[in-house]
């Protein structure tokens, strides 16, 4: 019998223990960074000593108009037990009130970009119930990237990119952006330009021309998308007074005793054998495959990520500190690309937050986000194979993802090519009256959002010779998104070897938590 290694792996809503070939290279996340000793004190210090900017008390007076923008509940995944955005916004409101600025001159805007709008109950997951009660529905809004009356065009960059953002940013004496950095793709100029941008602007950097498998959006120094955002940022800087507050959180995902229960089994630096909780779970997991652990969906509501850093002030100055801390937490060095990359894929995308995970999100999560968790060069070789472990169920939220449903049923079959998809459909979907109505007055993603996920993952699909969906429950669904179905995990590994070679190098990026592999030459 071949030797093997046992390890946890996500499978949709389940967490399973599977057997990996002995030669599998397991790559694990760094340990969680030490959290701040006192979150409130750290936030106060950052506001008192902003980077390359004056404190708010020196910029504002009782007649000032202030906008506080904040990331939407798409990230982090899962949402936190103690979200620093709510803590920071509470501290900001206390300062603004102390300056003498009345509530009716302060506006809170959820920077949802072309994502769906959120209910006040959903926003309370970030802000907390106290802020929602205090500011009320009259001072808390969701951004709309399509309403002309809510937007203002700042101009066009030298490269011909239109820059249009929420009017409140221009009309406020100061716009304060409060950010939580879960990955290195976020923060910096992306916050305002995407979160508070319009379709007219976002279409310039969210295209297949800016997305490919070799230049991960997790690597902002080389990402074409971030290059355009930085170029646009120079125009925003000239015309708006921005005060950026960015936070970095640890990667301690599991709260309480669950953290011990789901510690990696085979990690060589554990220092000891699995604890009693892990042993118990191993015993349960040895039952037949149809006895599954609905652990993630049924028990994990909030993560235990902790605040590790907070900086305030100039956008670029703040973001340098953010990236430095993120790289220390998230980047793991490795050498030698793999023939086969194994990914456990949960039913959890940023765009299924408080919603339903669908097959298009499965494709973008696998190829865009998870395969894109690298710096320098992809973990899987050009022409290699990805094994994605997920049941691949066709299911959609009709209210949140209407354009996803229509694309899936009507247009997908004739638009596998990312460039044809963008050129032929993006503007049609963007101006579709039904999608506009549901985005503006309901809780639907913008019409072109489905195409963005399809195009992005399509560019990444070009890098590999194939993606195998291990444990596919609906083979036709797998084939429809361009994946090859396999009945179970073992069958998927056999097929991956057939598509490469019997001595293929295998890497399993052991997620969660999310982390980036800084891939060096062998």
Number of helical elements: 20
| Main pleated sheet | 8 strands, mixed
Oligomer state of the chains in this structure: single chain
The shape is globular
Enter the CATH topology name of the largest domain: 2-enoyl-CoA Hydratase, Chain A, domain 1
Q: Quickly give the CATH architecture of the largest domain.
A: Alpha-Beta Complex
Describe this structure in words.
The chain has 522 residues and is α/β, with parallel strands linked by helices. It has two domains: 4-30 and 336-520, LarA, C-terminal domain (2-enoyl-CoA Hydratase, Chain A, domain 1), CATH 3.90.226.30; 46-249, LarA, N-terminal domain (Rossmann fold, 3-Layer(aba) Sandwich). The chain is built from 20 helices and 19 strands. The strands form four sheets. Strands 1, 2, 3, 13, 15, 16, 17 and 18 form an eight-stranded mixed sheet that branches. A six-stranded mixed sheet has the order 6-5-4-9-10-11, with helices on both faces. A three-stranded parallel sheet has the order 12-19-14. A hairpin with a 5-residue loop joins strand 7 and strand 8 (162-166). Helix 4 (120-127) crosses helix 5 and helix 16 packs antiparallel against helix 18. The longest helix is centred in the N-terminal third of the chain and has 16 residues, at 84-99. The radius of gyration is 23 Å and the shape is globular. Mean pLDDT is 93; it is low at 270-280 and 282-300.
């Amino acid at each position: 019998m071949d030797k093997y290694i046992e390890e946890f792996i996500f499978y949709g809503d389940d967490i399973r223990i599977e057997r990996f070939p002995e030669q599998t290279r397991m790559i694990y996340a760094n340990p969680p960074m030490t959290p701040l000793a006192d979150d409130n004190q750290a936030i106060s210090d950052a506001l008192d000593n902003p980077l390359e900017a004056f404190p708010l008390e020196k910029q504002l007076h009782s007649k000032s108009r202030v906008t506080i923008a904040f990331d939407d509940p798409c990230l982090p995944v899962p949402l936190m037990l103690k979200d620093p955005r709510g803590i920071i916004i509470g501290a900001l409101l206390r300062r603004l009130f102390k300056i003498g600025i009345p509530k009716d001159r302060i506006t809170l805007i959820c920077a949802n970009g072309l994502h769906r709008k959120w209910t006040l109950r959903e926003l309370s997951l970030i802000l907390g119930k106290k802020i929602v009660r205090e500011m009320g529905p009259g001072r808390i809004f969701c951004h709309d990237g399509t309403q002309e009356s809510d937007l203002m065009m700042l101009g066009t960059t030298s490269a011909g990119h239109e820059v249009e953002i929420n009017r409140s940013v221009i009309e406020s004496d100061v716009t304060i952006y409060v950010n939580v950095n879960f990955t290195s793709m976020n923060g910096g100029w992306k916050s305002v330009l995407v979160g508070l941008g319009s379709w007219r602007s976002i279409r310039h950097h969210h295209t297949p021309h800016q997305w490919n498998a070799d230049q991960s959006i997790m690597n902002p120094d080389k990402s074409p998308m971030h290059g355009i955002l930085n170029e646009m940022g120079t125009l925003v800087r000239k015309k708006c007074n921005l005060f950026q507050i960015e936070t970095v959180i640890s990667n301690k995902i599991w709260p309480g005793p669950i953290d011990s229960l789901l510690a990696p089994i085979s990690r060589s630096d554990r220092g000891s054998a699995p604890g009693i909780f892990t042993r118990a779970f191993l015993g349960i997991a040895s039952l037949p495959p149809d006895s599954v652990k609905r652990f993630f969906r049924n028990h994990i509501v909030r993560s235990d990520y902790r605040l590790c850093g907070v900086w305030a002030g100039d956008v670029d100055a703040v973001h340098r500190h953010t990236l430095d801390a993120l790289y220390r937490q998230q980047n793991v060095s490795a050498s030698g690309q793999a023939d086969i990359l194994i990914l456990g894929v949960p039913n959890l995308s940023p765009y299924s937050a408080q919603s339903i995970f669908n097959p298009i999100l499965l494709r973008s999560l696998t190829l865009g986000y998870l395969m894109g968790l690298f710096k320098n060069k992809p973990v899987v070789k050009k022409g290699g194979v990805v094994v994605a472990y997920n049941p691949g169920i066709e299911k959609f939220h009709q209210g949140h993802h209407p354009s996803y449903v229509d694309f899936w049923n009507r247009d997908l079959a004739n638009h596998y090519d990312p460039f044809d998809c963008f050129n032929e459909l993006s503007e049609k979907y963007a101006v579709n009256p039904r999608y506009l109505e549901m985005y503006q007055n309901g809780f639907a993603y913008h019409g072109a959002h489905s195409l963005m996920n399809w195009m992005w993952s399509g560019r990444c699909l070009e890098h590999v010779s194939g993606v195998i969906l291990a444990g596919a429950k609906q083979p036709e669904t797998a084939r429809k998104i361009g994946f090859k179905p396999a009945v179970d995990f073992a069958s998927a590994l056999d097929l991956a070897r057939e598509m490469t070679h019997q001595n293929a190098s295998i890497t399993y990026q052991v997620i969660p938590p999310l982390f980036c592999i800084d891939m060096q030459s062998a």
